[in-house]
Amino acid sequence: xxxxxxxxxxxxxxxxxxxxxxxxxxxxxxxxxxxxxxxxxxxxxxxxxxxxxxxxxxxxxxxxxxxxxxxxxxxxxxxxxxxxxxxxxxxxxxxxxxxxxxxxxxxxxxxxxxxxxxxxxxxxxxxxxxxxxxxxxxxxxxxxxxxxxxxxxxxxxxxxxxxxxxxxxxxxxxxxxxxxxxxxxxxxxxxxxxxxxxxxxxxxxxxxxxxxxxxxxxxxxxxxxxxxxxxxxxxxxxxxxxxxxxxxxxxxxx
Amino acid sequence: xxxxxxxxxxxxxxxxxxxxxxxxxxxxxxxxxxxxxxxxxxxxxxxxxxxxxxxxxxxxxxxxxxxxxxxxxxxxxxxxxxxxxxxxxxxxxxxxxxxxxxxxxxxxxxxxxxxxxxxxxxxxxxxxxxxxxxxxxxxxxxxxxxxxxxxxxxxxxxxxxxxxxxxxxxxxxxxxxxxxxxxxxxxxxxxxxxxxxxxxxxxxxxxxxxxxxxxxxxxxxxxxxxxxxxxxxxxxxxxxxxxxxxxxxxxxxx
Lengths: 254, 254
Hints:
The structure is a homodimer.
Chain A lengths: L5 H12 L6 E3 L3 H8 L5 E3 L11 E4 L6 H7 L6 E4 L15 E6 L16 E5 L2 H14 L3 E3 L2 H31 L8 H13 L2 H4 L9 H10 L3 H24 L1
Parallel strand pairs in A: 1-2, 3-4, 4-5, 6-7
Antiparallel strand pairs in A: 5-6
């Protein structure tokens, strides 16, 4: 397991639980490697030249920017080299004879235990032999296995950023507004949950409500007057415009 | 019950279930009034001059823009006049001697049954007598009663629009991207659910991840190259910038 961050940590534990033998855990910070390695009976290393040469898999779970560098440094291994990134093409691993993608489509934090049963796993391999073996690895820890090309993975990573990073940011803004106006965010939690449940099931454009959709400039102005931060005003304005555009487009079509 | 739209429909049913006597249901469209009135043993009317004068409550659940007009038309009633809006000041109802706010903080659709146990109810009255009676009405259908001023209600309505309308729109964009790139949105559902769960519990700014937070221009460019629609590109760019700004601000402070 190369990398002991959020993804490497949970993936290492999951593989161990499903009776895989994790030989080594690499991290540039040895303490981080050790934190994971002791849990999964592996050797902790902080130097890639200490990697064994005969593992079945080398799982690169490092930051996107470091994938190519790490891959190039660990050449001449016998096993299959995979990375866990959503946006990096697998050809970055092409120094190896067998390589591919091993991508759990979920957000991981060391503190929170992932629910592996619900996590969709995406994979692909550079040839049918590697792909078959990667698929087996996926199936050993997940029942939700999805063969996905590099192109498809990037097409998934973009909306993943939207539903994760962007909605998270918006909730951050909402919490900040509540804090600044001394109203409890807790009052909004049932609304937030219901909104998401509805958006999942229905076409969000069809069920859209609110001031932007009905071009209610009076309410929009009231809201903007509450936002002293220019950054938030810009987000509010642009998203309201975007909702209105979508609505106009839908009306033109029908 | 004045208005038989999403809010009036569910509120009427809830009050009826809790053994309130709903005398009349008004809607400009008589069929709409009838659809609700038959369920709650009330009289359907489509003319405000047919309103009885001695109801305990007149609940105005119409569009924001129509509240003042409706309120002015129904003067000289004995009961308390309330509206269900999040953004309209209660002084719009000041033609009446007793009035106030009766605001369920949730998104309603006729099709979907609301979970009344979890819905926060906000209320206020123009004097202590009306406020006490409105509170009693709230408590008869909800255990989550919150005395909220007009100003506080608007301060809640703004983040409510963000966590409902804006996140709904973003999920709409994500679904549209999946559709255009022929990848199944279903693969993103576990991520969406987990993201929301985390954002609820933690400070979203602290747990933010992704290309925008780490100023990963390579991935941002890749994502933008997948977005042919200028509207979506603008949303992606602005939210990425906003995430980066928040991050920079947080780093400056610490």
